[in-house]
Structures are given as C-alpha cells and as structure tokens.
What we know:
Elements: E1 4-15, E2 18-29, E3 33-37, H1 44-52, E4 59-64, E5 67-68, H2 74-77, E6 81-84, H3 96-106, H4 114-120, H5 136-148, E7 154-158, H6 166-181, E8 185-189, E9 202-207, E10 210-215, H7 217-221, H8 228-231
Parallel strand pairs: 3-8, 3-9, 6-7, 7-8
Antiparallel strand pairs: 1-2, 1-4, 4-5, 9-10
Bound molecules: adenosine-5'-triphosphate.
Amino acid sequence: MSMYHVTLSGVTKAYGKQKALDNVDLQLKAGECVALAGHNGAGKSTLIKLILGLIHPTQGQVQLLGHDAASRAASQVRSQVGYLPETVALHPSLTGTETLDFYARLKKQPLSANHALLSRVGISQAAKRRVGTYSKGMRQRLALAQALLGKPKVLLFDEPTTGLDPASRQMFYEIVTELRNQGSTVLLSTHALAELDGQADRIVVMKNGQKIADGTMSELRQQSGLPIRIRIQL
Ligand code: ATP
C-alpha cells in the first residue's frame, strides 16, 4: 500500500453551479495529523464526507487506504475509518455502555474492548448512567469513543473541540497524540487553530472550496493572502 492513507487528486464537488470543493489536491500520510481550517462554507465538511464516501466527487478522485473512496471495494476499508461528526445523535435513554455496544455491533466490532474504551475517554464511572444525564463534554467523550472503535487507521473529526470544557479538550488532544504514535492518520476540521499548539503536523486552509494554503504553522506565518481570522491565530 502507498505511504498515503488518503489522497485527493483534482477533486471538485459541485451542487448545481456552486462548487463546494474546487479542484483540491491533498495527501495524508500514515501517522500524520492535519488540521483543516476555513470559514463556514469553505468546504471542510464536504471534504470529510468525500473521504468517507458519503458523497462522490463531480470530478477527480479520492483514494482511501488504497481504494477509490467511491467504489464498492472501499466498503471493506471503511471499518478502518473513524468519524466524529460535528453533532452526534446519541439516544438519551441508553446508558454509555449500551450506546457504545450499539455502535460496536453496527461496526461489527467485539464488545469486549468497550469498557477499556470508556475508561480511556474518562467516562467509565458514568458508563451505567443514561446519556440523557450526561454533560456536553461527557457526550462528546462518548462520541469520541464511538469513533475509536476498532482502532481505525484514519480518523476524521469535524469540529471536535467546539464548546468543550478544557479538561475534555486536553483529553481529546492526548488521544490525538496516541493515535499518531500508533500510525493512524488524523484529519480534524477546526475554527480554533490557536488551541492546536503543535498537535497538527500541517494546516490546510480552505476558502470558497479551494485549498489556499498547506503547510506548518511557521510556513503559514510567512504566507500572504490568508483570511484575517486565520492569520491572527497563527
Ligand atoms: P461549516 O464550518 O459551516 O460546516 P464547511 O467549511 O464545512 O462549513 P461545507 O459544509 O463543506 O463547508 O459547504 C461548502 C459549500 O457547499 C457551502 O457553500 C454550502 O452551502 C455548500 N453545500 C454543502 N452541502 C451542500 C448540499 N448538500 N447542497 C447544496 N450545497 C451544499
């Protein structure tokens, strides 16, 4: 398999005349953490959905773990992809354990690892409580546990730390570090570049569906033409 877990080549996604993504090239290596920045509507969620194979490109190709993400063959590797959407639908009357067991069955993963996973995200003490009683931070931790089921090689996080308390945020970045050390690839979209603090190897900046920058924090500091709200966070 190539050294890249994810590759986008000349990818355009159009909705009618509007291009949500416009001729984007992107390569994500094993063990790399890449942050995806840009204003609302820049194309971040579209990019994540294309990698997941939930939507297909109008033009160009998305490769996921050696397969065309739009192909049938990609369904075999999709179990190696963890996804944390911006908002996760969790059933309030299920307990933490029941929720994770439900997702494990859905993903055809053994339930035996679930207790350790709940400990890892710091909610094992609340595992028998109904999710309806959880705080926002606890719900987000449970959603993260769901994304980690089956030790995925590729993790896609959509605005993972928005509205999170500082302790949950710190735990989130600790887990990102572990994932990178295990050789997993992490792509996370964010409005909060400032909080990354060295966690991302690279930052990709999107604007109007185009990739306008791709580099380290210090490389981006040298670059002109970035949106002001991004520049002030570098
Ligand atoms: P946000 O931070 O608000 O989620 P984003 O960077 O993720 O923004 P996208 O959701 O990828 O942006 O949207 C990119 C553009 O494509 C937007 O202008 C959006 O209105 C448009 N778009 C996205 N999905 C659709 C759709 N299903 N139908 C029509 N237009 C869409």
